[in-house]
Please model this.
Amino acid sequence: MKILISGFTPFDQHHENSSEIIARLLGEQDFQGIQLKSLILPVSFKKSFEILRQEIDFFQPDYVICLGLAEKRSVISLEKVAINYIHSKISDNDGLLIQDKVIILDGPAAYFSQLPLQKWMSIETPFPIEQSLTAGSFVCNYLMYQLLHELQGKKTKGGFIHLPPLNENKDQIVASLKLFLLHLFDKETVNSD
Model:
């Protein structure tokens, strides 16, 4: 099984991005039977998805799991839905501020995650988790929407997870995500979600 995990570089006033740190750490983990590759993306409307799409084409993963920082959350948020909408409160790292725009003209209003979120919610994890119904309207939601649009009708499955600031919780967050990855081995679980 091949899994591609992406994180983001720091942005705005943040000196670090928990998604970058966790993606790198997961990429260093030993997963028996899983070929895992981590990819760090810029917080950029123009570049983030293009880089991710190129890596998907090259690596041909079974799953793509994108990670992002949700600075005001205190749990791991499994994102259920991406909406066809951008409304930035801050500029991306290219200085681009986009407000009240659709991502893909004539695209569907929303896409749902292709990851087994309900099954993951039943796992006892070292760090608290929740299912979230909003990935926001900044680059994280943009990336999730573009990813799910790209994967329509394809074998590869994808989705998005928001992480809180790490503080002293790095090990528990890594351990929780590792449980999610190992759970992907259970094909019956994945297909029943």
Notes: Residues 54 and 60 are 10 Å apart (CA to CA). The domain at 2-191 is CATH 3.40.630.20 (Aminopeptidase). Strands lie at 2-8, 35-41, 63-69, 76-79, 81-83, 110-112, 129-132, 157-163.
